[in-house]
Amino acid sequence: MWNFFNNCTALITGASSGLGEEFAHQLAPHASRLILVARRNDRLESLSTHLRELHPHLDVRVFAADLTLPERRHALSDWLTNEGIDVHVLVNNAGLGDHGHFDSSDWDRVENMLDLNITSLTHLTHLLVQGMIVNGRAAILNVSSVAGFFPLPQMAVYSATKAYVTSFSEALAMELRPKGITVTALCPGPVPTEFFDTATRPGEEETASRFKTFPAFVVSPQEAVRAGLQAVARNRARVVPGPLLATAVAVALIIPFCIVRRILAIKSTSL
Ligand SMILES: NC(=O)c1ccc[n+]([C@@H]2O[C@H](COP(=O)([O-])OP(=O)(O)OC[C@H]3O[C@@H](n4cnc5c(N)ncnc54)[C@H](OP(=O)(O)O)[C@@H]3O)[C@@H](O)[C@H]2O)c1
């Protein structure tokens, strides 16, 4: 599988923690260059130093940016052009959640989530895709979620954003396949990262503890990222990491939705 990534330039958004950091670690031995993007520059710099020590051949660049800002997305694209950097693998990983009822949500948090999970992912893809087509064989890996398959109460906006990411990725995969670009939606269930801290509203109980009701579906960041990269190398449009969760999703998708809706409604009261 790693042949696909040999000597590639990979751009990873949200590389300062969690899955993004793990993407950097798994791609580092194979890629020739990594571009690490997120807001926390100190984290990106220390990851970059660490990766350079482990892989002296690797060219690691850091670009600190708040991707919810269109001008920072343009700045990233302009910087790549000015540096003469062609991106072969785009990992649209940056994303965040908000746990709680929609009627009591804070609009700024909701808007930030829409901007990051939907607009920024779509815009960055738009900015880079032409160059990727010109370069020939390339890949886009969009980090979605199992939440994208099911409208989750108390994660209503988050799951809707991930439904967008999965749907966008599937359509793009069909459009871009003849042009030599693989597009994959990685749809993890719960993964222990900083995601749950970020999704917890100020003053609320930590969201992570609520997900302990689904221990069988939890996968490690290593497993989730490996499944995503494997799916890219195999030119798969979508992957759910973890055999148990993948089976549960496959079964849930053939159950009549009126039954799924009841299960989700009951489950949501225990979250
Ligand atoms: N963990 C899970 O259970 C789970 C399950 C399914 C899907 N996912 C998806 O996996 C992806 C990665 O999340 P994670 O679990 O690794 O969570 P995480 O540890 O919280 O990582 C989120 C990353 O997004 C970056 N980010 C947040 N706001 C940003 C902004 N405005 N501009 C640029 N970067 C920003 C963060 O960096 P800075 O704060 O430094 O900017 C961080 O690197 C997300 O798309 C998430 O929806 C996670």
Write a structural description.
- This protein has 271 residues and is α/β, with parallel strands linked by helices.
- It has nine helices and seven strands; from the N terminus they run βαβαβαβαβαβααβαα.
- Strands 3-2-1-4-5-6-7 form a seven-stranded parallel beta sheet, sandwiched between helices.
- Helix 5 links the parallel strand 5 and strand 6.
- Helix 3 packs parallel to helix 4 (107-135).
- The chain binds NADP nicotinamide-adenine-dinucleotide phosphate.
- NADP nicotinamide-adenine-dinucleotide phosphate (NAP) is lined by residues 13-14, 16-20, 38-40, 43, 66-68, 93-96, 116, 143, 145, 188, 190-191, 193-195, 198.
CATH class: Alpha Beta
Secondary structure class reads: alpha/beta
Number of strands: 7
Question: Hey, roughly how much beta strand do the residues contain?
Answer: 5-15%
- What's the gyration radius in Å? 18 Å
Mean pLDDT, rounded to whole units? Answer: 94
**Assembly annotation:** single chain
Q: What gross morphology would you assign?
A: globular
Q: How many separate structural domains? A: 1
Strand arrangement, largest sheet? 3-2-1-4-5-6-7
The first-to-last residue Cα distance is: 38 Å
Q: Quickly count the helices.
A: 9
User: What is the H/E string?
Assistant: EHEHEHEHEHEHHEHH
Give the % helix. Answer: 40-55%
CATH topology grouping: Rossmann fold
Q: Tell me the CATH architecture.
A: 3-Layer(aba) Sandwich
Sheet with most strands: 7 strands, parallel
* Residue runs with pLDDT of under 50 for 5 or more positions: none
Question: Could you state the CATH homologous superfamily?
Answer: NAD(P)-binding Rossmann-like Domain
